[in-house]
Structures are given as structure tokens and as C-alpha cells.
Amino acid sequence: MALRPVVVTGLGIICAAGRDLAEFWSRLTTAQGGLTPIEDEAFAVFTARHAGQVPDEWIDDQLPPSDAHYDRTAKLALVAARQAIEQAGLTEGGPGQERFGIILGKCQATPDAVGRYQPMHRTGDVVAGRLGLRGPRILVSTACAAGGNAVGLAKDKILTGEADAVLAGGVDPLLFGTYAGFAGLQALSTGPCRPYSHSDGLNLGEGAAFLLLEPLDLALARGATPLAEVAGYGLSADAYHATAPDPTGRGGSSAVRRALADAGLTPGDVHYVSGHGTGTPANDAMEAKVMRLVFGERAGQVPTSSIKSFVGHTLGAAGAVEAVASVLALRHGTAPPTIGFDDKTVTDLDFVPNEARPMPIDTVVSNNYAFGGNNVSLVLTRPRGPRRHEELPRREAVITGLGPVTGVGTGIAEVSEAVAAGRQAPGRPPSLDGRTFAPRSLWRHMNHLSRMAIAASRLAWEDAGLKLPRKALDDVGLVFATGAGSAESTGGFDESIAVNPNKPAVLSFSNVVLNATGGAVCQTLGLRGPTTTICNGGASASIALDCALEMIWAGKAEVVVVVAADETAAPQPSYDADETPTPVPYGEGSAEPVRGSAAVAFVIESAEHCAERGGRPYARVEGTRHAGGEGAEPVRRSLALLDGQAPGLVIGTGTGLPADGDEVAAVLDRAPGALLTSTAALTGDCQAATGAMNIAMGALAVRERIAPALTGLTTPLAGDLASYVTKPDLSGPVRHALALTAANGSVRGAVLLGAV
Fold first, then answer.
1. Catalytic: 736?
2. Where is the Ketosynthase family 3 (KS3) domain (predicted)?
């Protein structure tokens, strides 16, 4: 099936090897590395102090004064984003704002001026706001694979017709805490790293890179010059270890093969590979195994090099930096070298040692691997001319399993009983005492967030009645959604480096990356299909559902587990229902929202797969819609999903704040006659897990005719009590339910569910 061609029309980069494209490419082709000693006195506690640093003046010279107040992460992203838009010729004109999106890869949460972590999606919000991008807005956090992952997801957004242009890339700064973590793992080289030859460790780096993606037909219509085609991409999970790659190369080779299949190409079509090439023994050995598995006898004839030998490991930006280098390699017919390569190294593979190599290049594979076992491969080719194509088919998908782990119950049976009885426990932490959902050797070392997510995923799997052979698990997808990841691990790691940065809590550090929990789920359930992690606050679950649907539509998976999990802090045993105020969503004078901890999973299947195995679905997913921005306007835009449809039930995002009024007004206007409710009084505000809970409760209402009741509501912000769910038993069948999600000030989401 030939799908709509997606091309790159603009590139932007700032990193240790260059402040822009021209300088970056010049230094790559003349073997001028950017790794230098760190002069900052704070880093003097470490014996390994080489890194890829971006001079402040490179950033400041490219930004207008109005951007001076933003943090370093946002500034790096703005520099690269503006470069890409300018090269694409979209400074003036181009797609409408609502058709122009941004998908940003990021590994680290950025501290604010007083050291508090900002929401992961904050950087993407800044770029979108400054550049007027009101289309799809996604923060993907698959650690060191995030930048390449973002490019693949951007391609999907164009294929689904949700966007006419997408900025896709990654950003991360050089942070002291992250440096301490890698030093604690003894993963840092004492000098400039030498990937593939003297694999004694990596150097960290910083920077940002963006590729501007458009459909080929629209790019040509506006007179743009395609630089390369994003022909395919592949995702996979190692399901092996929290930090170490699978030494067999199975996960990495699976990602390459999926990417080539997506592109309709074979290993024989590949001319150059941009490797992950960190310089650590485990990574470099695994990559050599991947090359031999994928290319067989031809492995030694496919040049492979590491851009990290120039810029260090830029974490969430790495995949985007290397994708930019790959596009330039295609454009100029030159393979960048791996510098610092020891000429005495004996190897049967071609790592392009020390000197750039002019050569014909029509197809490049760019690979990235990450903590948590996430793998991504991009296939980039020289652009071809216009050709006939088909639209991505919208295959019917259904929700077949629900797995809530909340303070009111664990498993859909317990939660359904609590909903029917009107029980509420906002802020009560879930209890898994005495229950083990993974092998004990793994379970006892896991943080609470991973335990909740694994429990939720297993319960959803069991509820769906799935019994798949082990081989079939290799193609089951997993999308993890979280707003902030593990508060327990982040707090423990930060405390440890405050005491002694040379002795950090390395177990906590391995769980600080936000995709670690998704990796733990894959490892426990044995899932090795396409895998990603979405971090858009309370809207994360509905965006994750979008990703799952796109996997099914593209034929990359027939079954996908979506699991969302967030926590306020390490669980406290002192919860007292009598002392905890119960918020009243949509009510005047409500108590302040109560923060909670929860994990909620649901299983998405293609309708054909469900029917073939005799599954019993809860609901059909009829559509989704997301809108970025602040205030009431994005609420109304997300509700445009209804397009005249009249849902019988709306599960909203109300938490008891005055901002509930924007949602109420939009719902009463767009869905007159629908009953409105919320899950905040049931479990508290659990960020991403609340959005997933709304989707789960919508599916439950469609099949079982019950919904959480707003029992404390007496004076609504708008409308009368007849517009709200005041008792759990619904009077009639719910043919359609609308579940809303929200990261206020960032993204609003809507999911329409229908009866099967």
C-alpha cells in the first residue's frame, strides 16, 4: 500500500558541533569535534569532565530580546525551530496555525529558576506559543530515542490528515543531576568518546534539532524544495533490562526491520547507517550485533558512523541531531566519519574512521536506543517525484479490557462496584499490599509507579481475555502515558546527589527517565511490539490512544496496551477519608482539588482481531480530537469532534477549580442534553491516569450503563442539576460517551466512544 509521501523541507540545529546547519555540516565533513572539558566548577567533583557544550553566545545571538527570559532548554529549542521554519520557507504563509503541529522529544524535566521541575510539556508549549503552532502538540519521552521517535510520530500525524506541517525534533540541556547519574553508572569516558573502537564510555552533550515535515504534494504546491523523504520508521521494545540493551540485538534489529518494511525497502537498499554509537561497551557491542543480524554477509559493506563522536550524547535531542545529519548526508552524498577512531581496531564492520567519505547515498537508516529498552529506526531517502498514493485506512478499533488501579479499587470489578455504590476516595493511594504482578525478583526492586502500571496492564489484559502465544507478543504494542513519571525515584535520586553527587542512587536514576515504567511493563508482560511514551500532563492518555490507533491503522499492531500512571509522592499510609476534603467538580465554592495517585490501563484491538478471537468489547473508538492553547478556546476546538453527534454522557476533566466553568460552558453548548460527570471526586486529580480513567469510565458506561455520580453537587457553575450525573445508574442505554482530557494551558483532548 503506497501511502502519502512525507518529506523534509526544513532543518534546524544547534549543538556542540555548530550553531546552524552550515557550521554543523562543515565540522562533520572536516572531522572537527565539539567535545571539550567542562569548566563549570560544580562539575569538578567528577573525574570525567568532557562534554558537548553549546556556548551561550551561540544561543543569544539567534534569539530576539523577547525570548531572553526563557530557560536554556526553551531557548535551544526556539533557535533550532526557527532555523527549520526559515529554511522551509514558512516564515510567511504556509499552513494555517491549526494545521501546523509540533512533536518534541525530550529526556529530562527542566528545572525552573528556583530548581523546581517544570511540566515535561512546557518546552513544547513555549515553542508552539512563540511560533503560533496550534496543530497537534505532543511531548514524547522515550529517553535517548525520543528525537527519532518524534520524527516517526510526526509522519503519522500527516498520514492521518491531522496536520499539513509538523516540526519534529528533540532538545535537552546539560544538567548536573543527569551528569551525576551517568557518572554513578560509570558510563562516562574520561576524554572525548571513541565509539566503536575504544568503547570506554560516553560524553554527555546538549542541543536541539528539528526537521520540518510536510506531505510531498503540499510542499511542491507551495514551491518548497524537498530535502529528503521520511520513508518509514520502526519502534520496538527490548523487554530486557532497565538500562542495559538486549545484548542479542533482537530489539534493535526488530526496529530496523519494521522501519524498512514501513518504507517498502529491504536491507539491500540501505547505503549508510547513522548509528547510535554512544561509546559504551554494551551499546557498541549490541549495535555490531544489530548490523550483522539485519545485513548478514553485507554488514561490512554498509558504512556506519556515530555523530556522538562530535557532539556527545544529547539524550532527547540525539535522534533528531542524527536525523538532521542523515538528511545532510543524503543531500551531499557524503557519509560523516566516526572521529577518534583507533586505527588499530580490528573489526569486520565499516565505521567510516576519522574521515568523511564521499559516496552515492540514496537510503539512510538512523538508529537510536534508550534506557527502558526503547528502540527507534528511521528510514530516510532521497526525495522522489509526485506519485499516486492511498489514504491511511481508518480501521475500526475497540476497547476490550480495562485495568484501573486506584484508591477506590483495584481491577474493573472493584471499581465498578465502588462506582455503583457511590463510594469516593479522592487522594487515597492505591494499595497493592500482598499482591504481586511480576516475578518477585523484579517486583521487590520496582518503584511504586511501575508496580501500579504493571498491575493495571495485567488486569486490563486479563479483563480482555487475551491469550496470545509468546511469538504473538512480539507484535503487541505498548503506549505509556505519564505527566511526571515516578515522584518516588526522582525524589530519591535528587536527595542522593544533594548528599554526595559521586554516590548517587543509581537504581533511582534508572527510573528517573519517564519511559522507564513503560519499559518495566514490557519486560514483565513480554511485549516487544512498537512502544512509546507520551508526557502531556493530563492529556497524555488520549494522545497515547491516538498513537495506539495509528499503530493499528498502519497495520503495525493488532493489539495495543495503553497504560497511564502518575503519583503525587511516595504512598503515605495516613490517608483519612474523614479529613480529606472531597472536591465537587463543576460546583460553586468547591474544595480545592485533591491530588491522587493511580494507574489505569486499557486494551485497544482492531475490531477484526477482537471478532476473530471471540472477544467482548466495551466500546468502539469513533474518534479523537486535540487542541493546543490556553483558556476556553481549545476546549471548544476539541469538542468539534462531535460534528453534530449527540453523546448521552460526557466524562469531563473538572476538578473543582473555577476553570471548570470553561469546560461546562463548552459542553452545554456543543452537547446539549448530555449528562456531565467527572472522576476527580472518585480518585482525585491523578494527571495522566485521570484522563485514562475518564476513557475507561466512558467505555464502562457504554457497556454497563453506570457512571461516577457527582453526589456532592448542589449548585452547578452552569445549567441545572438535570445536566449532571447525580446517581450512578443511568436511566437508559448510552449509545455514545465523550471522554475529555486536559493539560490546562497546553492541550485539551476528546475521545468519542460508541456502542458496539
1. no
2. 3-382
